[in-house]
Amino acid sequence: MTSTAAAALSLLPTSSSRRRVAAASAFASASVSLRPSLRRLGFACATDDRLLTAHVADRIQAVAGKSGRGTRGVVSMAKKSVGDLTAADLKGKKVFVRADLNVPLDEDRNITDDTRIRAAVPTIKHLISNGAKVILSSHLGRPKGVTPKFSLAPIVPRLSELLGIKVEKADDCIGPEVEKLVDELPEGGVLLLENVRFYKEEEKNDPEFAKKLAALADLYVNDAFGTAHRAHASTEGVTKFLKPSVSGFLLQKELDYLVGAVSSPKRPFAAIVGGSKVSSKIGVIESLLEKCDVLLLGGGMIFTFYKAQGFSVGSSLVEDDKLELAKTLIAQAKAKGVSLLLPTDVVVADKFAPDAASKVVPASGIPDGWMGLDIGPDSVKTFSDALDTTKTIIWNGPMGVFEFDKFAVGTEAIAKKLAELSGKGATTIIGGGDSVAAVEKVGVADAMSHISTGGGASLELLEGKELPGVVALEEAVAVAA
Questions:
Q1: Domains plus CATH for the chain?
Q2: Is 70 a catalytic residue?
Q3: Which helix (H) or strand (E) holds 347?
């Protein structure tokens, strides 16, 4: 973006001026019955969608969405994928698949949201359709040793239903009984191992434990993006004993979009960062300042920026030890020609409650005893106008306390704006966490180009950090574009 364009977007005083051809049909077939939830995850599932496939090392590809949703630029991270494996590579082979089946359960252990189970289905269906024997591994919750309430047993009925086959369940994840079940597994069969975190060795990435897990299989597929930022035995350790070790469809797609968004975006490129604290988003903000043209800030973190500029913030959330950092970030944006936009007005409340008295005030005029809980109407318009010309937008973090309807207006407006821009051809990426909840709440999740399934992993990837579970996978063979 030229400096002139940057200046034109700097409206506030605080501103400065991508599957493989071999796997496509299997993927689409696996997706047909899963359209609603998979589309929420960003998969192209409608019958009139086309997944334009190519080798992972081809750096830029496009996904042509449903009519009105435009063309989306996708960039691939050079890791070998399950889609690169042939039928000969898979038939009769025992494949250890690390999935993320960490779904929420109610008090009666009924699944309340099966999104993560659905997300694992395309990779599993591809494997079983090619005659592989699937050994499925996952964690659930944070158990301290063997904890019955964290058993993966409740997953079996729903997974069986989605796959259209009877999924077998092991009572352990290693040992003679598990080995016997694996030996009895037919081609195209699926065995779900018990919660891998029942063993403390999992999170410690104990080599001997990883070796026991690996001994069950011939090759490895990691499709658990949500845990890819952790070097655990089932995500990183097993790769030392199983070759090949490749990514699943879900993991690869996450990399395609999240890496692509920051390495080769269509410009202008805008980033929207919200959330309560600057401290939790420092790395993301600093990384995005190196790459984006427009940076919009919202949520509780804005009050630290306000105070750093001498504004009165009332009883709003402020990190006093981050005031100098806020000043530095503003200076960095100016030096790099990035339009850093802060809200010009805010919705303040007399208490942190859904029924609090509220009013709209200028950003520089927050009264004593009042706290900011959302961005104001002028800011919504300014942010929307700034986003109008952008071609790639990544959003991580709400604009306000969107859990309270009264203070969800700003967040909901941004969600609707991104849906509108996606319909016009922009690439819109929701980077996990509360932003995902926000677009689901507003009902515009289907419109987004991609919605990430991993909160912490998304943040670390956007920060430019390497994810152990990804680094451990085999590199793709370079092919000339």
A1: 82-247 (3.40.50.1260), 259-462 (3.40.50.1260)
A2: no
A3: strand 345-349
